[in-house]
Fold each of these.
Amino acid sequence: MGQEVRKKDKGSGAVFVVVVAAGQGMRLGMGIPKAYCLLGGKTILEQTLDALCACDLIMPERIQVVIDAGHQALFDNLRYLPEGLRPFCIGGDTRAVSVQSGLQALNLSDDDCVLIHDAARPFVPQDLIVRLVDALAEHPAVIPTLPLPDALKYRETLADANREGYCLAQTPQGFRYHALRAMSDNTAHDEAALCSAAGIPLYRIAGSVENFKITYPDDLIRAEKNLSETIYSAGFDLHRMDIKSAPQDIAVGGILIPHRFGLIGHSDGDVVLHALVDAFLGGIAAGDIGQHFPPSDPQWKDCNSQNFLEYARNRLQQARVVIRHIDITIIADAPKIGPYRQAMQERLCVLLGLAPKQIAIKATTSEGLGFIDAREAIASQVTVTLRRCV
C-alpha cells in the first residue's frame, strides 16, 4: 500500500505545496538571489523542487512556486524544473504576502493539505513529508521541530536561558487549507505563528537534521559537502533451512511467511534484516552484526531481528548518516517471495521511516544450482545508499 492509498484511507484531501522563493537572500553573499545560486550543478530552487517531487505524495502540478517580480528572467532561465510544474506566481514584500499569493493561485478546498516550504531547504527528506501529511489527517496545523543542540544564552547578559522551553522550527509546515484561508497578518514570521495567534492548535512532529536551511556562506559549503558525501554499502546473509522441522512461519523482511520448514539461526534468522544491519554498520565502518550481537551470547537467542535493525538505524543517526535508498535481492527457491513483496516493503517503511519509493525488493532463484535451489537455504543481498550530513 503506497502513501496515496494510506492518505485516502485517512480521509485527507489532496496535497499541495507552496514554495516560497520571493526573498533576496543577500546574507548568502553571492550577489544574486539565494534561490538561483548554484548547488551541485543546479540552482538551490531546482534542488528543492527535486527533493519535493521525489516523494510519491507530491505531484509537480500541485506545486506553486512564488517568486519576486524582479526575478522572472532568472526563473525563465532555469533548465532543470520538474516536468508539469505549475507556472510561477508573483509574491510580495513579506513572506506572509507571498504565501497568500501562492495560496490564491491554487484551486484549494477546505480539506486539502497545504505544505509551505522554503526554497532554501533543498534536503527535505521524503519520510518527513510523509509524516507531516499523516499528521494532517488528525490535526489542522503541523510543524516539524528540532531540539536546540547548543546552550542558550541571553544576548545582553550571557546569562543561561532554559533551552528546554525552546525548539527550532523547520519547513515544510503543513496545514489544512481552512486553517489558513482567513489569515491576513502580513507581519507573521511563518504560518505557524498565524495559526497560534488565531487559536488554532499546532501539532509538533520531529524534524530532521538533514533538512537545514541555506542562509549563510558556510551553509552553502555544507550543502555542497552533503551532495558529495554519499556512501554506498552492501550486506549479505544466508541461513539454512531446518528440513527436519515441522511447517512453521519464517521471518523474512520483517514479516512472517508460512513455510514447510523452519530456519536454523541463533535469532529469528531474518536474512533481509541481517543483511540490512550489516550494510548500515558497514556504511559507518562500525563492524558487522556478529560483533554487536554475537551468536555465543544467549541474550540474542530467538531474538526478533527488528531489534538489531533498530540498533543499526540508531547508530546511523548518531553518526549523522541518513538512508537515501535500499536495494534488496532475496535469493530463494522457496518460499515464493512475490506474494509478500508489498507487505515487506510496507513493514520496512515503518521500521526505517522511509517512503516506498526508497525501498526496492527483488527476488530470484539460484537457477538449479547449489543448496538454495535444493531448498536448503535462503539468502539476501542488500545495497544501501546513504548520505552523511555534515
Amino acid sequence: MANLYPYIFSEDARKQAEFYAYALNGEVVSVQTFEQAPNADESIKDKVMHLTLSAADQIFFMADSVQEPVRLGTQINLVLEYKTEQEAHVVFQKLSEGGKVLMPFEKMFWGAMFGRVEDKYGLTWQISTEHE
C-alpha cells in the first residue's frame, strides 16, 4: 500500500500553507529552508525547500519554486471527502475566499454534497461528502 502526498510548488509556500492550515483546520508541522542545505545559493537561503502541512487528516508537502516560476494550470485537482455536510461546507467556504467557485457546493445525483473551487492560488479543489 502506498500513501499519496500532494506536493505543491508555490511562489510563497509559507503564506499559502498558512491559508490552507486556516481553511482546512490544520497546522504547518515543519519548514526547512535552503539555508539548511549544504552549499545553498545565498539568494535563495530564505526560500522554503520543504514544508509539511497536516490538514484535513492529510499530509501535504510544499516548497517555494526556485528553478522556474509557478505556472497555474488545471492538470490536477485535490479532492477532499468529508463525513459531514457541515465540515465540507465550512472548508468549501474558506477555500473560496479570494478564489472562484467553479461548481457550487450542492447535492449531486450520486447522493453526495459536492462542489469545485479554484482557490486564490490557482489550485482546484473538489470538496465532497461521503455517498449516502
